[in-house]
Design goal:
Elements: E1 5-8, H1 12-23, E2 29-32, E3 43-45, E4 52-54, E5 60-61, H2 65-74, E6 80-83, E7 86-89, E8 95-98, H3 110-114, H4 121-137, H5 150-155, H6 161-176, H7 185-197, E9 205-208, H8 212-215, H9 219-225, E10 229-232, E11 236-241, E12 246-251, E13 254-257, E14 260-263, H10 267-273, H11 276-281, E15 293-303, E16 312-315, E17 322-328, E18 334-341, H12 351-365, E19 376-387, E20 411-413, H13 426-440, H14 455-459
Parallel strand pairs: 1-2, 1-14, 2-10, 7-16, 14-20
Antiparallel strand pairs: 3-4, 5-9, 6-9, 7-8, 11-12, 12-13, 15-18, 15-19, 16-17, 17-18
Helix pairs in contact: 1-9, 1-13, 2-13
Length: 462
């Protein structure tokens, strides 16, 4: 009997690979350093308050077909609450709801965005101009923009600087964890084309209703119930390579022999697992040092009395990007979380400074809360939250398999940083895992198709 397929990393990519292989009749072995699966999507007990806090708010959109499928397979789809309405504010207690109309996609959001008082008439005209250009460019047209930034694309659409900052960047920085000046244009274009325009459900926002650890708590039992093996607390030290093929994974508990290895870890972690000999043998491994990261900061605040009624709030003209309602406390208070994406400029700031900015944003958004201070605070810095999806890195994002590049044939790569066609997202991570599983087993269905494009959107060129 041959050695098993060994998967390094219990994040979304690793879990997706393991579950897909197990369901196809394989006996994969999943190695995870931590005691829990979930990778960067994790929770912890705050020693200050005793609350369970997520390291950062994780959300998905209606167009995330593979992530939705993965949650279905795990049996946790009911733990995701879907929201068709997004509430926006630029402060002073003025809240505007963006809800799809009865119109078919891509016009379903036009009435709501067209009424936003956040933007004056000239700004709304500029936004319509930009959206029309994105729609008519089509998905095939994105390819021509993969080596340029989204800011460069917007410049061709005659977008005023104020509109770029207050509208386009508001969406892009949250979706891609990079500002428009840095993010690859094709990644941002994908967000608008397939995340807003493709169909009526694409822009729906899915938010977990439980802590992230609870969301993935069932994963080990589900994977093992399907025939896989989960070994938590086992740290990979190196990928064993015999000069032709990888032969296993060296761990803190010894060598785990492997028929094939799926490295489902971030690029910087993988860089430490490969020898110089293995790196030289596989072109996919040689650009690992070129990848950069983009941080995210979350500020948790607890108030004695409720602050917000809506489940979440998009912030314009604020320091933070979003506020999420995280639930009521036992004493009748409320826990909220503010999120700052692409937080490079803040990463070295002390917690007190970031907390002050968070409280100031709450007061700016909710004037009735002015004068009220939080009774509990916690700032979480995810310094390596995602890879930076810049124009320069696109050509270096590796394929799952060595096919066509002359690499090591039984080494497979998975992770959101791989060549998934998506920016740094949970959807991209799951897609890479499904792709790796399909490359290893004919019984795997592979990557789930994108959500259907609405007929009118297709007719207009999407």
């Amino acid at each position: 009997m041959r050695d098993p397929i060994v998967i390094i990393g219990g994040g979304l990519a690793g879990m997706a690979t393991a579950l897909a292989l197990a369901e196809a009749g394989e006996k994969p072995v999943l190695l995870e350093t931590r005691r829990r699966l979930g990778g960067r999507a994790t929770s912890f007990v705050d020693r200050r308050t005793g609350q369970v806090l997520d390291n950062c708010q994780h959300v998905l959109m209606g167009g995330c077909t593979n992530l939705i499928d993965f949650y279905d397979r795990l049996g946790v789809a009911s733990m995701i609450r879907w929201h068709r309405t997004l509430t926006w504010t630029s402060g002073n207690g003025v809240f505007e709801r963006v809800t799809p109309s009865w119109l078919p996609a891509p016009a379903h959001l036009a009435p709501a965005f067209g009424r936003l008082r956040l933007y004056d008439a000239a700004a709304r005209r500029a936004i319509r101009r930009g959206v029309w250009r994105i729609l008519r460019l089509g998905r095939s047209g994105r390819v021509a923009w993969q080596d340029r930034t989204f800011a460069e694309f917007l410049a061709t659409c005659d977008q005023p600087a104020d509109v770029v900052r207050r509208f386009w960047n508001t969406i892009v920085v949250s979706a891609c964890n990079l500002p428009v000046e840095r993010v690859a244009a094709d990644a941002a274009l994908k967000v608008f084309q397939e995340g807003f325009l493709a169909n009526r459900f694409a822009a729906a926002l899915g938010v977990p209703t439980v802590p992230l650890d609870d969301l993935y708590a069932a994963a080990p039992a589900v994977i093992e119930g399907a025939g896989g093996v989960v070994r938590s607390g086992v740290a990979a030290r190196a990928i064993a390579y015999d000069g032709n093929r990888v032969s296993g994974v060296v761990t803190n508990e010894g060598l785990v022999k492997a028929y094939a290895v799926v490295a489902a870890v971030p690029f910087d972690r993988l860089d430490k697992l490969v020898s110089d000999t293995l790196r030289a043998a596989d072109p996919r491994l040689q650009p690992l040092g070129r990848f950069e990261v983009s941080p995210i900061i979350a500020a948790h605040l607890v108030f004695e009395t409720p602050i917000m009624e809506m489940p979440h709030l998009v912030l314009v003209d604020h320091d933070f990007d979003w506020i999420f309602e995280k639930g009521r406390t036992g004493a009748g208070g409320q826990h909220i979380q503010l999120v700052k994406s692409a937080a490079d400029a803040w990463i070295d700031e002390p917690e007190t400074t970031i907390t002050q900015r968070a409280v100031a944003d709450v007061h700016r958004a909710f004037p009735a809360a002015r004068g009220r201070e939080p009774v509990g605070t916690r700032v979480i810095k995810e310094k390596r939250a995602t890879f930076a999806c810049t124009p320069e890195i696109g050509v270096h994002r590796p394929r799952t398999t060595a096919s066509g590049v002359g690499g090591v044939p039984n080494l497979f790569l998975a992770g959101d940083w791989c060549d998934t066609g998506w920016p740094a997202t949970m959807e991209g991570a799951v897609r890479s895992g499904y792709a790796a599983a399909a490359a290893l087993s004919d019984g795997c269905a592979g990557v789930i198709e994108d959500a259907p494009i609405a007929p009118v959107a297709r007719w207009l060129g999407l």
